[in-house]
Design goal:
Strand content: 15-25%
Largest sheet: 7 strands, mixed
CATH topology: Rossmann fold
Shape: globular
CATH class: Alpha Beta
Helix content: 40-55%
Number of domains: 1
Bound molecules: S-adenosylmethionine
Number of strands: 7
Radius of gyration: 17 Å
CATH superfamily: Vaccinia Virus protein VP39
Number of helices: 10
Oligomer: single chain
């Protein structure tokens, strides 16, 4: 399916289904973004997170980042996530780490956050803003829920120039590639919502590492799929391998990268 044919709701549910599958956990690991927990810690440093800070993790996925911020920094974290099974897995993770009193996961859409205005000291959104069909609306929601002086940190795929046609389809969209923006576009969304741009940091090396890991694991896992043991929801393994090869070429030629972007509510 092309992205023109896929309405916003279908894109979101495809994304939620894919990232709650066992196959993606085996491909990517426990943190569903380049750089893993180490990059989440860097994001926390840039946001100057402190014990007791109220943090919103938009599109919290398996909850790895939320649990890390609660257990190592003492933040109180709310994760908003579309997928019920990802929220369930995240709750189990929080309980296993003994931080269930400081972490909660709620059902919701980044474009209509189910939380009150001006309630958070910081918002994080890792490897997910690029997949939101309504980016201006998502940025306006971030602005709404931050307290005055609150900070937001996006960590996301970036693009320098146009992508080839094979990286513009549904699979590439949910794999965070097809609608990746330039750093200026991301900051433009945040700025138009009333947030003041801060630092940006390049972490493209982390993207290359993750892409290499995914490419090598794809071959092994697609063998398991032939034995009927593993499914990649709504996606074919051959399509996934072709897309990964094409994305790898764009990462190596410097067109696709990864960055942290920070902004502040006045
Ligand atoms: C690449 S994963 C990143 C998960 C997590 N932030 C991390 O870094 O480990 C993208 C996540 O975004 C969620 N998602 C996609 N669109 C969403 C939306 N509109 N609102 C809330 N969650 C969304 C998906 O279900 C998935 O868990």
């Amino acid at each position: 399916m092309s992205t023109e044919a896929a309405p916003a709701a279908a894109l979101k549910s495809c994304c939620a289904n894919l990232y709650s599958s066992e196959a993606v956990r085996l491909l990517v690991g426990e943190s569903f973004h380049p750089g893993g927990i180490e990059l989440t810690r860097r994001l926390a440093d840039l946001l100057d997170l402190r014990p007791g800070d109220e943090v919103l993790d938009i599109a919290s996925g398996p909850g790895t980042s939320a649990v890390e911020l609660a257990s190592s920094l003492g933040c109180s974290v709310t994760g908003v996530e579309l997928s019920a099974s990802s929220r369930e897995r995240a709750e189990e993770r929080a309980a296993a780490a003994g931080v269930q009193d400081r972490v909660r996961f709620v059902a919701g859409d980044a474009e209509r956050l189910p939380v009150d205005a001006a309630t958070f000291d910081a918002v994080i959104c890792e490897c997910a803003f690029c997949t939101f069909p309504g980016k201006s609306q998502a940025a306006a929601e971030i602005q709404r829920v931050l307290r005055p002086g609150g900070r937001v940190g996006l960590s996301d795929l970036t693009r320098r120039a146009d992508l080839p046609e094979e990286l513009k389809g549904l699979l590439a969209w949910v794999a965070c590639v097809a609608d990746a923006g330039t750093e200026e576009e991301y900051m433009g969304h945040l700025g138009s919502a009333g947030l003041v741009p801060g630092v940006t940091e390049d972490h493209s090396g982390a993207l290359l590492e993750l892409a290499e890991q995914i490419s090598s694991r794809l071959s092994v896992l697609s063998l398991a799929s032939q034995l009927g043991q593993l499914a990649l929801p709504q996606v074919g393994w051959a399509d996934a391998r072709a897309m990964a090869a094409s994305a790898m070429a764009e990462i190596r030629n410097g067109n696709l990268g990864y960055a942290i972007l920070v902004a502040r509510k006045p």
